Please model this.
Amino acid sequence: MFVTFLVTLALGFPIVFVLAISSAAYVVLAGLPLAVIPQKMFAGIDSFVLLCIPGFILAGNLMNGGGITDRIMRFSQALVGHVRGGLGLANVTGSMIFAGISGTAVAETASIGSVMIPGMKKVGYDGAFAAALTASASTVGPIIPPSVPMIIVGTLTGLSIGKLFLAGAVPGLLLGLGMMITCYLLAVRRGYPQEPWQGFRELARGFGGAFWALLMTFIILYGIVGGVFTPTEAAVVSATYAFFVGLFVYKGFTLRQVPGILIDSAVSAAALVLLVGFANVFGWILTSERIPQALAAAMLSLTENKYLIILLINILLLFVGMFMETIAALIILFPPLLAVAVQVGIDPIHFGTFAVLNLMLGLTTPPVGVCLFVAANIGKVSLTQISRAVLPFLLCNLLILFLVSYIPALSLWLPSLFYE
Model:
């Protein structure tokens, strides 16, 4: 199974097919009935909480189809565009606002990148820098709520999704702030342009345009934390809200365009759910072979020091994140690593936060950083160029990961305010 996994991964197969083919190889060679595969797939996706995923994807597509990206970027430029490297800072700010809508990094890279990368290149920014910044900033999306990876974590372990959402807020803000500082320092050093101050009137207009997007994030968080509705109901509420705002407030699409948006959302959600299903089959095989227990025993045989265990887990997840899609890695590795973390006294919510943050960095880490591919394609730069340009942002994000990993209060402070 592992040989098949490595070969198909090296040949560039999509991770969903890598998991499917390697799992099928194990089932055939082990003499098990092929019916095991659909049975375990169904067991993995038969979860009420997973209904959040298509709901939030649809909400993001409806808001984006309603022209929300342009309005968010206008507000961001009015807010920070006058600072040296202002368009880069607006790029990060826009990603932080957009994070409350999409919940997925790849969607954020494509939406904001299609607007910001050509715009940054046009006024004098290096194409590789613009693409690298966009890809790095998009990793904020799955940290700041709502977050699809956090939903997966809650589904796998039974942890409170509301607590996980809140736990990601401060680390997400730190991630965005760190990238803004890095962007500013690079802009000053390289002499990137500085936009003129547009005045408070433009700032007010920009805020008015982005207000409905900001309100959507507030509704989702207040509803879940306040006990008004469950995460699954929150996804339905956000999709309904996005429909009315996009159609009647922003007027970015017509009723005739809605079926196309629904189809795109269904395809994206189906691909993600299919990945969850095959990852569950792969994870079941590992569990039946007691691989997670062996991994946990190997870690604890090296040390039972909490801080060293955190370091070992981060190294493992960073390595895995370079080659494996985030959702698949979470389904396969999160449960056994959580058991190790709890055994040495790490809070489960804290562990979930830095584990998700860690795997998000894999989206911008060569050689299989999905966001790098998307941003490089939009910016018309090579993977080599964007890989070099992303290094300063990657180092900044690793520093934030270190802080979040070793300072539990950064992720536990907000949940402690709202939950006993």
